[in-house]
Design goal:
By secondary structure, the protein is α+β, with helices and mostly antiparallel strands. Helices cover 25% and strands 31% of the residues. The strands form five sheets. The protein has a six-stranded mixed β-barrel with strand order 3-7-4-6-5-8. The protein has a four-stranded antiparallel β-sheet with strand order 17-18-16-19.
Length: 333
């Protein structure tokens, strides 16, 4: 009798647990904009499309290259560090950086500059160095084009601080918004904040690098850190979406510096080998050899171009790879 009772109780428990798990899953899918707390993650080496990547903690990384963006098809799905991707937040994906980390991304075509928080892996299309959220691409002015020439720079001290916070189990959502607005890391404690009217039609604010614009008229409100994403007391213009408050970040205007796009087929320490390859590649486009010193060593880089657009660079890169030049990459300088 006791055994029958125990068996029935166990079946009821398993059924209830299954229903709870199913309900939790359905709720998560139905609320794609809900906030989530990720964890600190670096991860092991991995291989995608035949190419191996080696994630590592890096706080001095500076890169120039092509940025892309991702949005609706991933909205509400899990990021690599366990958060729920929200295409309206200022986040990004990188192939090897620790998560989370804080990176300043500058659009080299228009000078717009924005701080984003890396919480995902990617992009894996050849020739791309970072994948930004839809909102980040809008603020940087390249959403409609799809790609842009960018410079990314890890904010060393801020990234080390956010890494320590994540390692200790703290939620790091919204740190990037506070940095864009005031240049300071937010408090970890929930505090009262001032919030702009949710009906504000302002898409973004532009702040010259030397100073800040006068703040708009605000209304007082007490917002929890899960809905405002930061615990810092400051004037925050923004809007609400699906019950969550999204602050409007400040976009910094940087000087526009002319850059070119090349496809680099290889780099050699022996000059003769570089010239041999450049001669073979003339059938694809103008190929030249560029000497360079890297970490005290002399290299000879074989590059094709400059090319006029990202699309042309993609096409040239694909032709080189299909002809056997697997190590070819896109370079922005």
């Amino acid at each position: 009798m006791n055994r029958i009772f125990y068996t029935l109780a166990l079946l009821l428990c398993l059924t209830a647990c299954t229903e709870l798990q199913l309900a939790s899953h359905v709720t998560k899918q139905a609320l794609p904009s809900s906030k989530s707390q990720g964890t600190f993650k670096v991860g092991n080496a991995y291989k995608i499309n035949g190419k191996r990547y080696h994630p590592q903690e890096s706080y001095d990384l500076v890169e120039t290259g092509i940025a892309s963006w991702y949005g609706p098809q991933f909205h509400g799905k899990k990021t690599a560090n366990g958060e729920t991707f929200d295409m309206y937040e200022l986040t990004a994906a990188h192939k090897t950086l620790q998560m989370p980390s804080l990176v300043r991304v500058t659009n080299l075509d228009n000078g717009r500059s924005l701080i984003v928080r890396v919480n995902d892996r990617g992009p894996y299309k050849r020739g791309r160095i970072i994948d930004l959220s839809k909102r980040s691409a809008e603020l940087l002015g390249f959403k409609d084009q799809g790609t842009a020439k960018v410079r990314l720079e890890v904010l060393k001290q801020e990234s080390m601080e956010i890494a320590r916070a994540a390692k200790s189990g703290k939620d790091t959502n919204g740190y990037e918004v506070a940095l864009n607005r005031g240049g300071k890391m937010p408090s970890l404690r929930p505090q009262p904040v001032k919030v702009a009217s949710a009906t504000s039609s302002q898409a973004y604010q532009v702040e010259p690098a030397a100073g800040a614009q006068p703040p708009p008229v605000m209304r007082e409100a007490l917002i929890s850190p899960t809905s405002v994403n930061t615990g810092v007391r400051q004037a925050i213009p923004g809007h609400t979406r699906s019950g969550a408050f999204y602050p409007d970040p400040i976009v910094t205007e940087m000087p526009v510096i002319k850059t070119d796009i090349f496809v680099q087929a290889g780099a050699f320490t022996v000059q003769e080998n570089a010239y041999k390859l450049s001669g073979k590649l003339q059938q694809f486009a103008q190929a030249n050899v560029y000497p360079a010193i890297v970490n005290g060593r002399q290299f000879y880089r074989v590059r094709l171009g400059p090319v006029a657009s990202v699309q042309q660079a993609d096409e040239l890169l694909a032709r080189l790879i299909s002809s056997g030049n697997e190590s070819a990459i896109i370079i922005v300088e």
